[in-house]
Amino acid sequence: MDNFVLFCKTYKGDFERFKILKESVDKYNKDNLPFYISVPKADMELFKTIKHTASYKFSILIDEEILGFTPDMPGWISQQIVKMKFYKLDFCNFYLVLDSDSYFIRDFYTSDFMYSENVPYIVMHENKYFKELSYCLGDKNVFENELKIRNYLNRDGKEYSFYSNPVMSSKVLSELEKNVDKIENLIKKVPLENVWHGEYLLKSRCIDFMPCENFFKVFNYNAELKLWRSVGENIEDIKKYYVGILMQDRWIKAKKFKVSIISKINRRISRIKFYIDADRAHIKRDKSAWVYYRNYIRGLFRVIFKGEIK
């Protein structure tokens, strides 16, 4: 048994996105963490066409064998059961649950996800920014369903979110099934696998853990993607805080985050506006301060005509 592995539940509809994820794991998996994926039996031959030449272990599993039955429910529900029941295979103590619409953008190591051998980092934060954005856009059902799980488990205290691409503990899931109900029954009640795992962990404290924010930069909505592009965010910015990017395929058509020349120009303009607003009083007192802004504006023209950016 390994202590920590990567796991992705996918299917043929996400094949192109999954290939991007697989390529990123090949490139950035510096600790050679084993990577398991699970697909419907009918999709197995398609996923076998993926060439694996990297040095880490890569295994393709079958959904029906993990489930123990042939699902007669929507795929978005059965996939959550698969993600949680993966622990029953006894391959690992902890595993990072990866979505097909995510991919890595820098080197990653076990230490990015595990505080110590037996203490995982658990994505667990109030997520106020995302909640506010979701309510503004009218997409609030997920938070109402989170409340149902908290009430079902009688867990008091603040509201926390456990999205996205979380680390799951085999012990937590085993205790959940032993003390609450079978995973398939819980998902049928409220289909939010991350929340069941996280809320039960908070309620039971059956393992030690360290809370953290998302491992991946999540673009949930096109409006959110446009916002970050409007200020010129680039991959180097994201790498400072995240190991990867998740492009929520429910709302976003683009498979990868790309920086256009427009976003590069926007970045320069936004910085100029920011510094002028912050430094207006200083500029009035010291005319030489304009030299800084003159040079920065020259940089804007270099971006426009040469595509340069810093």
Can you describe what's shown?
The strands form 3 sheets. The protein has a 5-stranded mixed sheet. A 3-stranded mixed sheet has the order 5-11-10. It has a 3-stranded mixed sheet with strand order 6-7-9, with no helix packed on it. The chain has 310 residues and is α/β, with parallel strands linked by helices. Helix 1 (15-28) links the parallel strand 1 and strand 2 (35-39). The protein is globular. Helix 4 (75-85) runs antiparallel to helix 8 (183-189) and helix 6 (141-153) packs parallel to helix 9 (193-204). It contains 13 helices and 11 strands.
Number of continuous helical runs: 13
Major sheet: size, sense and barrel closure? 5 strands, mixed
Uncertain runs with pLDDT below 50, 5 residues or more?
Answer: none
Helix content: 40-55%
DSSP strand content: 15-25%
Which radius of gyration do the C-alpha atoms yield?
22 Å
Based on helices, strands and strand pairing, what is the structural class? alpha/beta
* N-to-C order of helices and strands: EHEHEHHEEEEHHEHHHEEHHEHH
Mean pLDDT, rounded to whole units? Answer: 90
Strand numbers in spatial order across the main sheet? 3-2-1-4-8
Q: How many β strands by DSSP?
A: 11
Distance between the termini: 45 Å
> Which descriptor suits the 3D outline?
globular
